[in-house]
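User: My instructor asked us to take a sequence, write out its structure as tokens, and then describe one feature of it. I'm not sure where to start. Here is the sequence I was given:
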Amino acid sequence: MAPQMIFVNLPVKDLDASKAFFVKLGFSINEHFTDETASCVVISDTIFAMLLTEEKFKSFTAPGKEISDATKTTEVLVTLSAESREKADELADAALAAGGGPAKEPMDMGFMYGRSFTDLDGHHWEVFWMDPAAAQG
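Assistant: Let's start with the prediction itself. The structure tokens for your sequence are:
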């Protein structure tokens, strides 16, 4: 059985700027699933963010539903694991340097550490590391 994949679909105002933002974070673009209305950001072998123009995004939603303005409301938190505290910091720092914004203060519980940021459209991203020994116990 193939591993299950996740495709997080996000509406964006400026597709080219959003693609550039995620490339600056070290992710790649799958050009086979990219056109002038959508772009597939490859986060890992099983995790993808589909950046969709607002018009394209709206074509997938239920009739009559509005697109949330992520700069004003929170509909979802996208959370990624990191292999170390340093990798969590690297990704969050890269997001801030690429034009993203801070979302919350860093969280440090000793055995678990996390950072957060918003992308160019205000979508809230979390990146965290957890001590594997703590996760087992």
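For the description part of your assignment, you could build on this observation: The chain has a mean pLDDT of 95. Try explaining in your own words what that tells you about the chain.
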